[in-house]
Automatic annotation (TrEMBL):
It comes from Actomonas aquatica. Quinone reductase that provides resistance to thiol-specific stress caused by electrophilic quinones. Homodimer. Keywords: Flavoprotein, FMN, NAD, Oxidoreductase. It catalyses: N,N-dimethyl-1,4-phenylenediamine + anthranilate + 2 NAD(+) = 2-(4-dimethylaminophenyl)diazenylbenzoate + 2 NADH + 2 H(+); 2 a quinone + NADH + H(+) = 2 a 1,4-benzosemiquinone + NAD(+). InterPro entries: Flavodoxin_fold (IPR003680), Flavoprotein-like_sf (IPR029039), FMN-dep_NADH:Q_OxRdtase_AzoR1 (IPR050104), NADH:quinone_OxRdtase_FMN_depd (IPR023048). FMN binds at residues 80, 86-88. Binds 1 FMN per subunit. This is FMN dependent NADH:quinone oxidoreductase. The keyword Electron transport does not apply. Pfam families: Flavodoxin_2. Residues 73-268 form the Flavodoxin-like fold domain. Its EC number is 1.6.5.-, 1.7.1.17. SUPFAM superfamilies: Flavoproteins (SSF52218).
Amino acid sequence: MVSSQLLGGAYCDCFVHLVARGKRFEEGAIRYFPQKRNKPDLTKHLLAGKETMSTRTKIIDTPPKIIVKKELNLLLINGSPRGERSLSRQLASSFIDSWRTKSIAGSIIERDVGRNPPPFVTEDWIAAAFTPADERTDRMNEVLTYSNEAIAELREADIMVLATPMHNYGLPAATKAWVDQVIRVNETFSFDLDRGDFPIEPILQGKRMVLLTSAGEFGFEQSGIRAGKNHLHPHVETIAHYLGVSRSWSASIEYQEFGDKRFEESKARAFSKLPTIVEKIRSSYMEKTKGEGRDRAK
Ligand SMILES: Cc1cc2nc3c(=O)[nH]c(=O)nc-3n(C[C@H](O)[C@H](O)[C@H](O)COP(=O)(O)O)c2cc1C
């Protein structure tokens, strides 16, 4: 596996694969070898024993400050009830293509809530969620099945891609239903009155979110003519905190209902942002590994 990373202006294209005592080291790790007249003796870097190694290394002048050794798991939530014609789905699919192009290790899981809407929260659901796990009946556990699965997917995700249409100026009901299933007491948030007026705290943290949207009208940006009608982006921004999101990016298509040149331009702008967002996410993990360590419990 080849990993190409841009680090502080120095380009390092390394291919390091170590096998030592049956243990497989992470591939694609970036190693720094200071410039020497002769090629560096890479074998010094191996553990003693029966190591084997293949490597292709460009020598770089300055040491990278960061070493990225992390698998990034991606969770895609598709919220459109439409299929191939859905613009938010097309954005998501283009984003995933860019993601794959970068050969970033990790899983990609899709929850298609648009075509398979989650169950709504009911009185039974609330009773089950607020009952301590070891006191739940079989029926209660059954009611929480979807929620448990969706939360497990969210917990494992480093990156969450939320692709959704604007419906009636906000989230489509199915996407909102997913949100209601995953934002759950003692699972994704804790509640403690000792915290005073702000008793709710997220349990998850450090995730990255990409919000990909499509709307029929236009002018929903902060200074836009319909900014006051945008209950989609501000809502997702508020919710994101409770999903454990610490950084987010977005790309939006507008003018779908007009179908004119402005629509074509809006589409082109949104699609062209996606590779940059992928790169920014990758860089954000480089920064992160510098000081913060892993953001999810192993
Ligand atoms: C039920 C429904 C409600 C909609 N409400 C809005 C709206 O409030 N504002 C808007 O700009 N477009 C609205 N639209 C248009 C959609 O946002 C637009 O068609 C968008 O491209 C849909 O996303 P998709 O292509 O991913 O399905 C609505 C469409 C539907 C079907």
